[in-house]
Design goal:
With about 130 residues, this protein is mostly beta strands. Strands 2, 4, 5, 6, 9, 10 and 11 form a seven-stranded mixed beta sheet that branches. The protein is globular, with a radius of gyration of 14 Å.
Length: about 130
């Protein structure tokens, strides 16, 4: 079982920034597409963004594009979610996830190359982010 551990959540005022981290297994981390998701009570889990195995391609939900940035450091087995210009509607539990369900040589410019939410094999427990107005 792959363990993913998130950190960096907390409370911030609207307009502020937070950086979340997610650390995974050392030997296999670089083989995963890593994603970030969020969920609020009573709502379905929502895709935030994802980054490919090498870190040279990422995609984002429209709601966060231009405000959030995903990066990864495979040497540290860590993926980051930098969140800027936070809004109250960003309040949620944020979870990272890892997917092995991608193809070597993928064209990451194509949406079809990225795993859907149901293709993520492993999940962290999440970290709370609260944005006050």
């Amino acid at each position: 079982q792959v363990q993913l551990v998130e950190s960096g959540g907390g409370s911030v005022q609207a307009g502020g920034s937070l950086r979340l981290s997610c650390t995974g297994p050392g030997r296999t981390f670089r083989s995963y597409v890593m994603g970030w998701f969020r969920q609020t009570p009573g709502k379905a889990r929502e895709f935030v963004g994802a980054i490919n195995w090498s870190g040279d391609s990422a995609r984002y939900a429209d709601s966060v594009d231009g405000r959030f940035t995903i990066s990864r450091d495979n040497a540290k087995s860590t993926v980051y979610l930098q969140m800027n210009s936070l809004k109250p509607e960003d309040t949620a539990v944020y979870s990272c996830a890892a997917s092995t369900r991608w193809t070597i040589g993928s064209n990451w410019r194509l949406l079809s190359s990225w795993p859907g939410i149901d293709k993520y094999n492993f999940w962290g427990r999440g970290t709370q982010v609260t944005v006050s107005s």
